[in-house]
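INTERNAL AUDIT FORM
Audit reference: QA-55
Scope: verify that the stored structure record matches its stored sequence.
Auditor: D.O.
Record contents follow.
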Amino acid sequence: MNGITWIRIGAIFAAGAVAAGAFGAHALRERLDARSLEIFETAARYQMYHALAIIAVGAIEAAAGARGSIRLAGWAFSLGIVIFSGSLYALSVTGIKKLGMITPIGGLLFIVGWLALAAIAVPKSINT
């Protein structure tokens, strides 16, 4: 993948986060209890944060070229959104508590993504 592709992926995830937030605020407000609505909103918020991170990944890759850590960051953020936010969306609307068991995997992927992004700032040589 190249930088433009990451920007597109991030923008699609961001659009989805806006749609999910609006859906939660309007369509689900009367259908979910307060705790389920809070979980749904957390999913949308974290999806947006990490969609923006994916856009940053794309911008960095477009400007500086591909490096293993930047691609790792993009993949980790993307899979993190699917697993973390996806499991929370499903948990909040279905009430199936076992779905929450996979949420930490998505959170771990977010952490991996941020650490991979931080690795880009590490100089290639200690002498530089």
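Auditor finding: record pair retrieved intact. Helices lie at 3-26, 34-64, 68-94, 103-119.
Action required: none
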